[in-house]
Amino acid sequence: MRRKLRSKTQRFGGIAPLAAMLMVPLLGMVAFSVDMGYITEVKSELQGAADAAALAGAQQLEKPYFLWSAAATTTEKNSIRSAAITSATSAAKTIASANKAGSVNVTLNDADITVGYLDASGTFNSSPATTIFPNTVLITARRDSSANGELNLFFGAVFGKSTVPVTTTARGTTYTGVINSFNPNLNVSDHLLPMTYDATFWGNFMSTGKDPDGNITTDGSGQPEIQVYPSSKYDGNFGELALDNSHSGASTIRGWIDNGLDPAGIQTLISDNLIPVTSHNPNSWDWVGNPGFKASTVSEVNTFTGSSFLMPLFKAYDSSSSGYQAGNGNGSHYYYNIVGFVAVKIMPVSDSNKQIVVQPTNYFDATTIVDPTSITPGGTSSSTSVVFIPAKLSK
Questions:
Q1: pTM summary value
Q2: Are residues 162 and 185 in the same domain?
């Protein structure tokens, strides 16, 4: 018996209406994804502008800190502090405007730039007392109604919102550290002066603005400087230092001033256990030096007026005023105890063959190795022989 086959029912056009109904939410999802991707991209660009602005602003607080610290009067301190805040604000605006977020150059509101202070524990004070020097710049970058305009969406109008506000923040902070050593593996020379100054006298200058003789000296703009050579009261508190730890002639010393200490010289100091400072015997006077000064050395230093160097500091063998003695030994057997390094700028003098005047600055040499345990936000260290390392973003 043959069974009769039944034909299947034919259905036409069932998929089209369903596809049409699904197209609306599908297109909505696509539109939402496009706009969200655009918002994310612009926010990333805005964050980059804020980061750059915060770092640029923080960098303007480095050199003024040293000048503020050594200023002798409250009036001078307030002037330096105020100028630093103005410079930080201006730098932040300039760098921000060089960046774009969503094809719009970023403009910062004055109210969105805060120059404050981050303490060693990580607490941020947006309005530190005038007796505290700021070390941090907090930035809020916007694409909203108050700055740069809200971000226009591609498909937002479909959902009743054609624009959206976007904001980001960034905080840049200055950091200081104590120089511990120098890197001989970079194939570059370090700009280390072949001369040394009393660490105690330097610390006193940085806290009072006075030299060992009690004098206060300022440059043409009223900012503090110190004559490190000669000194009338403490004769010999500043002397030549052999950067190869051996007795050197005038031409070798001139070469160090002109060209810096090469990698081989750095390695010699390491091999002789003179650096790193933290591994050196704190009570050992073993770095070859000379309590006197060659006129050629003084003159050569002054050919670099306006340039920055790192200057070694020593611990005096006898610090009493009656029997002051910088190092230990006599004649060709004279040794210093080097305990730190500071950044200085060579300043103009009235007699280039008989004086050396320096100003504290924020110079950081490429070969410099900072003791990692000494790194703290700018202005929080108790050490007077610190240098600024590159500013970085803080949270």
A1: 0.87
A2: no
